[in-house]
UniProtKB/TrEMBL annotation:
<feature type="domain" description="Xylose isomerase-like TIM barrel">
    <location>
        <begin position="33"/>
        <end position="238"/>
    </location>
</feature>
<dbReference type="GO" id="GO:0016853">
    <property type="term" value="F:isomerase activity"/>
</dbReference>
<dbReference type="InterPro" id="IPR036237">
    <property type="entry name" value="Xyl_isomerase-like_sf"/>
</dbReference>
<keyword id="KW-0413">Isomerase</keyword>
<dbReference type="InterPro" id="IPR013022">
    <property type="entry name" value="Xyl_isomerase-like_TIM-brl"/>
</dbReference>
<dbReference type="Pfam" id="PF01261">
    <property type="entry name" value="AP_endonuc_2"/>
</dbReference>
<protein>
    <submittedName>
        <fullName>Sugar phosphate isomerase/epimerase</fullName>
    </submittedName>
</protein>
Amino acid sequence: MKDQIYVATFSENAIDVIRENGFNIELNDLCISENLDPEKVRDTMEEMKREITASGADKAIIHGPFTEIIPASIDHRAVKLGLTRLNEAHAVAEKLGIKKMVVHSGHMPLLYFKEWHKEKSHYFWKEFMKDKPADFIIYIENVFEEEPLMIKEIIEDLDDPRIQLCLDVGHANAVTCEDFDIHDWIRILGPMIGHLHLHNNNGKEDLHGPLDVGTMDMRAVLSSIKTYCRPDVTMTIESRTCASSAEWMTSTF
């Protein structure tokens, strides 16, 4: 069980919690893309190595940069910027020997129509993955999607086992339309989910709260995950303060 659980390093006392519970680590150092700038990347990598060593984690996942990753951007230079940053993140992953990376979908619902986003996402992720090794996996994460069908179609159209889903249950809970609840998301997306982000909220704001505080019944969420997702699915605790969530997870999962 512990082999499937990760903790995000942005969370308070994450390194201690990982070490004390025998969890794995999701590294957030590359979320802010400027940490990949030439004058910063060496220090960024050293910090990531330090976090892995200090945590004692056996396995690591990198969360890639999410600032200005917008596949549907009309400006081709903006699209190229997103690909450049993701390729820089992959280069760091290769040097650290990490084969898995979470990436944001980049959907901007008030700016781009869904059909346009789907079309451009197909090009964007194909382009990014065209030269990546067979054992490198990305998990595309929902952020502002209000329903699960669009991202499902994107993954199906890409038809690449290296491109899977990261279902962020907190994001879904905060923005989903009334036609779907979190269990619908898990049921509809289940077989293509390789990784999950777990945190709770009030159903309106992306609070990244403790697992047992919010409008989601996380015991029921875990039950749905066990029912609809693959047995080897992994998950990251993404609560801003992770100690109580780790304790809850250990006693529940």
